[in-house]
DNA sequence: GTGAAAGCGCTAACAT
DNA sequence: ATGTTAGCGCTTTCAC
């Protein structure tokens, strides 16, 4: 009883001549000629994926030859190669990347750790990064830390166990200990930080010049005639919080405006946190700000929503500027003035730096890229 | 010259007694006792990740014992197990999932194919699905088809080569050929469709009752007094397009309103497509609709933007209802009335069905879940 | 130009 | 309770 090496069926098999002294068979169903090896342990159950051994058996050659043919290895007979390629197609061969990774100690997987991917910013970066990775033959494993140090650590382990070749990271805002990042480097796995970078680790980084961006934003508010400008900042664990805060302060200083300490509120970046901060700022009886520069667009949008609810007209009594140029900024009325970040560029450049590190023998010289922000003026800040 | 089996260094090594007749060493740096095997091929370069063999050597036991200890296998000496666990921690052991997957023919990876993940809808589903997967010990590989059949097919190959244990799919709107989906089933890899399901494939599916949702939406418009209700529908390749269209028609019919054929426009779901459709509808000289039911929220929002530009007041002269309850619906002014889908539930249920299929021997009985939509009334449809 | 054999890190019979 | 062996699918010397 001879089974087809492809479909495993027995009913459609006929003999079809002798090749190299061996009986050749033909499966009518699969339209496939094949030869069984001497002790041919015949094919297993259905859901077996074709391997190079299947191809080798079908062609009565060795699996090394098949492997070589599949990879355009120099020394290979043209005819043999074509045979192998044909058979591979016929048997619907898909290389087992797991096996390949194991023997090459290279998974062709790249990990990305982000705090979340709900708010346009990270998805856009991921898309851009993934595009670059895919082109270079890499796969991407996306992990969300959900702004939690614990989850971020767990993510790092998952990526390590999956033997990723490199990692892109934007830190959670809870992270204060960086051992899990060092573990990567300890094992020679390059890491590139983006946006929420880690000062303490000497690796490549890509981010936007937050200081400059904030400065532009606040300067614009001042030039629009606002005098009492507040700031809703991000969590104090994030470097960008300080950079944006400093830009805000520098602009106030340059134009001789006071920056009373109470005009700065920090919030975690959740919706609730943003609403709380906005409420606090807009409920003030004395010294209510006439403008607010917000650490990012989602926060700015919540601020506008709160103002709307309190019947405080934007921009007449309240100027607002955000950061990032979220698509929402165009939708909301009035349009939200904001600092545009080259979001896709961040993702692309970060991935390119990472790929370069991966391809470099030994530790590559870290490269730090600071991208230029741009002021986009809409209705929320011009009266 | 003896090297530490952990750090590979030689300078911090001292002898430390004889154990089971063998010389024991101690590394001051790593605070680690260890014994070398007879022919001890000493440790390789730095970026070598610890394997069970390293642990076995360090403890002078066999790697099977290590494997067993690591997996709480029944028959294992308590003491041995603790030793192994300690050593694993000491050597910072991370199991190689690739090797594990290879031998078990089970990758613990699950693929997700979505058209995109920029617009809240898919990211939310992915998050929910990922959460369920992670809890069950599965990893998730996310692929975007970018609404392209070709890319979707490529995605399928990538997932196949990565030997995923199952796949969650929401089809691209270009997809008319389904062989790449069948390939999964042919290899015993279960598939669950969600949201954009494939009629032709007999597998589990999760979606929202689109017909019912549209019916609710249009009924609401009618009850609000709108008489000439148009519809911007989705691409004709998607089943949900027909379902939503039919719901729209059924509501018109039930309330005795005419549904002139020209009051239905289909668009791909891109921003540009939406704007074009909106322009067409709102530029009509005769018979301009007084309300529009849109296939989803992003389209509805573009419609409102166009109306804003044309100074057509919403909701007074134009009622608008969307579908999905995108966060933007709350932000835009007036608020967008919409049909809420239980987005997270879709992701969760789809993943649960998939995990069940994976754990079932043989092909599981397909389960189809239709979830209930809900009307959320905001300002855009009430005058 | 091709085959045989070793080995990537791990699990799972099969011995003992 | 532990060691020995084979093998997952693949690449890569090393022979011939």
What does this protein structure show overall?
Two copies of one chain form a homodimer. The first copy, chain A, has 383 residues and is of the alpha/beta class. Chain A has four domains: 1-45, no CATH class; 52-96, lambda repressor-like DNA-binding domains (434 Repressor (Amino-terminal Domain), Orthogonal Bundle); 107-201 and 344-369, Response regulator (Rossmann fold); 210-342 and 375-381, Response regulator (Rossmann fold), CATH 3.40.50.2300. Helices cover 39% and strands 19% of the residues of chain A. The first copy, chain A, is built from 13 helices and 15 strands. Chain A has helices spanning 52-59, 63-70, 78-90, 97-104, 121-135, 149-161, 179-186, 210-223, 239-254, 271-282, 297-309, 328-331, 343-359, and strands spanning 13-19, 22-27, 32-35, 109-114, 139-144, 166-169, 191-194, 204-208, 229-233, 264-266, 291-294, 319-324, 337-340, 368-371, 374-376. A six-stranded parallel β-sheet of chain A has the order 5-4-6-7-8-14, sandwiched between helices. In chain A, strands 10-9-11-12-13-15 form a six-stranded mixed β-sheet, sandwiched between helices. In chain A, strand 9, helix 9 (239-254) and strand 10 form a beta-alpha-beta unit. In chain A, helix 10 crosses helix 11. Chain A is elongated and about 95 Å long. The N and C termini of chain A lie far apart (88 Å). The A-B interface holds A 46-47, 49, 92, 94-99, 101-102, 107, 117-118, 120, 123-124, 126-127, 130, 139-142, 144, 157-158, 160-163, 183, 186-189, 301, 305, 308, 328, 331-333 and B 46-47, 49, 92, 94-99, 101-102, 107, 117-118, 120, 123-124, 126-127, 130, 139-142, 144, 157-158, 160-163, 183, 186-189, 301, 305, 308, 328, 330-333. Chain A binds a DNA duplex (16 and 16 nucleotides) through helix 2 and helix 4. Chains A, B: InterPro entries: HTH_LacI, LacI/GalR-like_sensor, Lambda_DNA-bd_dom_sf, Peripla_BP_I. Chains A, B: This is LacI family transcription regulator. Chains A, B: GO terms for molecular function: DNA-binding transcription factor activity; transcription cis-regulatory region binding.
